[in-house]
Amino acid sequence: DAKTTQPPSMDCAEGRAANLPCNHSTISGNEYVYWYRQIHSQGPQYIIHGLKNNETNEMASLIITEDRKSSTLILPHATLRDTAVYYCIVRVVGGSEKLVFGKGTKLTVNP
Amino acid sequence: NAGVTQTPKFRILKIGQSMTLQCTQDMNHNYMYWYRQDPGMGLKLIYYSVGAGITDKGEVPNGYNVSRSTTEDFPLRLELAAPSQTSVYFCASSYSQGDQPQHFGDGTRLSIL
Predict the structure, then answer these.
(1) From A32, A49, A104, residue closest to B42, measured CB to CB
(2) What is the Cβ-side half-sphere exposure of residue A21, based on CA atoms within 13 angstroms?
(3) Could you say which of B48, B101, B106 has the minimum Cβ distance to residue A98?
(4) What confidence tens digit (pLDDT) does each residue in B75-109 have?
(5) Could you tell me if B47 and B58 are in contact, meaning their C-beta atoms sit under 8 angstroms apart?
């Protein structure tokens, strides 16, 4: 699985959009980009994933660059409850389906 | 709407003791996983299973054993507990095909003293 690089921490004002970047320059054609988050010490929570196209769901939007070497997770209107560690993971589909977690980005949403 | 259920939530063991961490899921997922998370770090895969009767090692399997006799249950066994196994343990499950995400339990916080 390709490795990812994320900033260790970010801050965002409540009500503003939070844009979390991820670099995955060695991603291969059959690898998806997944985003999870972990609030306090709870189990990781799935947010969104994509292969090539931009994706949106009720939680967030995922923007993947055309060359697929980087992506951005967007939380459109961050709330205090969005304070968490966000993990960007690339994963080959069709294998063991295991996830390789890095250290992620600690997002702090400030009032 | 149970999802992935882990028991116990907390446990303190003495060095050399053994125990089993329980994990069960009610989503009929074929794939199940065990991860551990040390303070300030990301999760590391211990063992995984792609179906009943099939298990395989992950990144950090030493000191652990697993079994998968049913689709629903995937217990993790610690034999001869050591302080290095103090960690938070997460179980997860997913569908076997396609790009489906993993669903995680709330974890078991284990201290070895």
Answers:
(1) A104
(2) 9
(3) B48
(4) 999 989 999 999 999 999 998 656 788 999 999 99
(5) yes
